[in-house]
Queue: 2 jobs
Job 1
Amino acid sequence: MDKYQTGNGTQQVKLAVDITTTGMAATRAFTLTDTTTTSVAASSDATGDIRQTTIGTAASIQGSTLSITTKIHITGKDINARQAEFNGLKALYVLDNGQQGHAEYSFDFKNDIYGDYTDVELYKNISLY
């Protein structure tokens, strides 16, 4: 799992997500601790992108895991074209304003849910410390 140093101050840590796909996408981000799950950001259109948004103060999210999931629906009748789109999927996750400053990550794992390249999920987890 990737890590990001938030620090323990009052500065607002920011997240941005850029999904590259021709499919329809939706992204949600949560902070997870042993006892709570808190939604901190979501995409607002079918791109799956999250414009830069505050996810909490450094001190309030320190010690949690930032978990980001994107669901993508790839359309078209040609399975080879859908597979090519699946293989070309990209995601850029950007954290800013923590003690570590600017950091960029790619997805950890992608899952072809039904085995036919129509519905796909991308996963990213980042330990915040």
Note: Strands lie at 2-4, 12-20, 24-32, 37-42, 50-57, 65-73, 90-98, 101-105, 109-112, 119-128.
Job 2
Amino acid sequence: MKRKSCCWVLMCAGLLGCQANEDSLADYIEQVTLQARKEIVPRQPVVPFEAFLYVNTKAREPFELPREAVTQNQPKAKKDCWQPMPRKQKDPLESYALSQLKFKGVMSNGKSTSALIQTPEGKLESIAKGQYIGINHGKVSEVNKQYLLIKETLPDGLGCWNQRSIKLALK
């Protein structure tokens, strides 16, 4: 009983504490409207666009560097540097970039080990040590269970060639 009366007393006290704001909403909106600043910033005048008609003449194209600048920026080609031996025959996997190929497995007959490579079309190709792979004249130098070691031959842009080793990991 005591709890019920205590709850009633607390609820009544809470309700007495709530008093509605009896100010007029219309008066408040009018007061805020009067206090608001109304400044209009004038716009900048619009400058009319004038199109320029380009007529091709014997002069250079507008987005090309002058010939003097192009020849000064070109590094000099080296004459005595390493060149790879030219090859005519292409292996089937030489038409794909290494990033497109996936190393899927290893096969061995006891004497030699070859790798299974998946092409972007999903076709599996077998490749062994000494065969070529990739568009950068890559030659397989090692086949093992974890990776395929490939020596790529890349042009340096000056007429010479550099070699680098790439590992194609088993996926």
Note: The helical segments are 2-17, 25-35, 67-73.
